[in-house]
Amino acid sequence: MEPLGEVLKQVQGYIYPNEVELHWSLLIVVYPYVTGLVAGAFILASLVRVFNVKELQPTYRLSLLTALGYLIVAPLPLLAHLAHPERAFEIFLTPNVHSAMAMFGFVYAWYLMVVLLLEIWFDYRKDLVLWSAQEKGVRRWVHWILTLGATDLSSKAVRFDQSAGRFITIIGIPSAFLLHGYVGFIFGSVKANPWWSSVLMPIVFLFSAIVSGIALVLLLYVISTLLRSKVVDMLCLDKLASFLFYALVVDFSLEMLDFIHRLYEAEESIGILSQLVSSRLFLSLVILQALLGTILPLLMLGIISPALRGRGSLKTPDELRRLLYVAAAALIQVGIFSTRWNVVIGGQLFSKSLRGLTVYKMQLLGIEGLIVAGFLLLLPLLLLLVLIVLLPPWPEAEAHLPEAA
Amino acid sequence: MPQQLARLLVVFAVFTGGLVVTRHLLIPKTFGQRGHYRAAAVTTIQVRPLRYAGREACADCHADIVGLHGKGRHQTVSCEVCHGPAAAHTLAPVENQLPAPRKRAYCPLCHGYDPSRPTGFPQIDPVSHNPMKPCITCHNPHQPEPPHVPEECGACHGEIARTKAVSRHALLPCTQCHNTPVQHKVDPRLLHPDKPRNREFCGQCHAKDAPSPREIPRIDLATHGGRYLCWQCHYPHMPEVD
Amino acid sequence: MEKPLSDNPGSQEAICDSRRDFLHTCSLAAPLLLLALQAKLVRAFAASEPVYNPREHRYGMGIDVSRCIGCGRCVDACKNENDVPREPFYFRTWVERYVINSGGDTSVDSPNGGISGFPAITSEKGILRTFFVPKLCNQCDDPPCVQVCPVGATFATEDGVVLVDRDYCIGCRYCVQACPYGARFIDPRSRTADKCTFCYHRITRGLLPACVEVCPTGARVFGDIKQRSSPLARFTRFHKIHTLKPHMNTKPKVYYADLDEEVR
């Protein structure tokens, strides 16, 4: 009880006695952050598949695998945060249809099973069949199992793969919107909490998800290409940066709309929320989220990427531009993580009596501590590594049908 | 049907089938009987043990005290307020003796002066009210009528007494404005003190030509305050002037 | 008057009430008696349908703000009756003190939920008005906590009381977030959500909730909304009633009389 006693001493103003314990901690910050990366990476893949943005082809498979790696991890912070994880299966047994959270299992299952796995499967099936034919040992068996025995490589079958993949991507776009819009809805629909309760919440979550997903794939693409000592495709990178810029503009506009709307309506909660922003959230919201995580990358990308003018407002050598893109993408990750922090933790730092502020004491050890959260943020990258070994996303690894070779 | 589709359908069928079967096996029996919850949970909650027996239970054995208590000012105060939860005591009276608070610190929980308490609720200043003496030396908690009629109105009307004490009206006795029947001090709800009814009452001191000391502020009763009665603007126990 | 005051466990010979003597004699058999009585109670309520029909009731509570003296006996009784952890972070009910200054600023406190009263106000200067307000679960007719519970572990019974199934709660804490009144907490021992049940185990046996039982001034009134002659019906008839945060549209069944606008 010692930590709660410490919190009690730092309460400012009045909070309800039951509010001393802060209920959704660091793991619930990780959860929307990770889910956002899934949705964002998938939307990026669909740019290639559905909207035929040819320049982004080198990132297509990488973004699908990234999405999968993060999607597998997405429910883990939720599970770890439950006081009774052993009862989590009840969500599938007796889901309360009125509960936004109960729908998580279904949205997640839909997205994982129907969208992401299928799209990856259809995209890789031809390669899986060919790989398993050429390889030996364990890889051969793994790849063969993954074909599910569907080894037909006739041109008709391959064409079916392609159209099925395209069809699933088309379903996938609204599904990705659903996945992350839904996470926003979990917060946005809590009428008891004025910081969360906003109709804009799902859509703000969605666009910040797209921003974070594109930025992540950009980072992974540059890093993986350099690690493999290949040449970074600057055309692809410029295009990525441009889309990142557009998404960031929309995201920033929505955030500002939300901010101005709250300020202008000036409801009952405005006093305590202003206090919250100017004191407890000043670092994470004003400095990290707005200045370093949004405005600075916006300026960088706006000036050097070809988003606004044909070859960038400021002509820069490729090396420098690449470095600046990576820097902007890294800043954006920090910014989006802060965004999640400010929503989840920020929404619990003020009392629902609107009369006081409390503090969040982050733990280092323990299931809800920093170490577990850090591990859950690293885990998707480890999974991605396994996936890359298993299903190499690089163009040179792609197998070709005998007649084409 | 393309080969791929056929294989996928098999995988999905196995998966969904498994889910449906496990779901059917695992849903608790009483779930959904009365609504979207386990009806058994209601029973679990209903059979929780009692700690407080309820005041009616006390009369079974303690008729004498309950009778005394029922006539006094503490009649609304349930026995278990002071004696604590008594369910165990009603089942095994000897093994589970109930405490009776005897320390001076206990009674002020209710009767210590606190301006947030409703006006008229009997409150004392624990520092100055017969210091050091346990309350029960003078007051029987089962019938707490004070041993003698309170001399000061402040014994019950602490908030007013305190307010008045630092106001310009500090030196006026309560009876200057309130005719207080003697009965009121014995049985406060039976007869109430009266209150001034007209401007002329205040005018006895504050009118221009009143025969009162010179330093008392004067007003012209004919023009000052218009249609309002004096106490609609000035609180007589703390007459603000501005 | 002197006799009961000097009463102590050592002077029990003085008591001549025959029923009491009888009980004393029986005291050796007390453990057995206890078991038998408890078993009887449990039996009566395990087959509760004939005894208690939830459809015949609809419970509510009235709170007369102008009667509350802030003694905190309700908070203490609640923790006793419902085995609520004694730490100052877990409350099924608590009492708040409001002090509104003539400048307009309001300060609120509830030290340890008011369980051992309130520290004296040092200076009364500048106080415009001040009062106590007991708080508890509002037993909403449209409870947001029930709406958000993913598994049906919190629910409204047929008599309108919102309960928690602690053997089914997964501990996601969404209900805690959804409650506008801060009425819920996670019991650190069972790691499940907990809150006021109107003392469901008492009211279904015809007793009053513990807080109502011990309120010395009658600031808490409990009753059946369906009954036209209950203390609650009379309370709601003769007072102007307000509920907490009505704009949340949760339709509380805790009715406040003489509530101040500063109370949230």
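Confidence is low (pLDDT under 50) at residues 1-19, 25-36, 39-49 of chain C.
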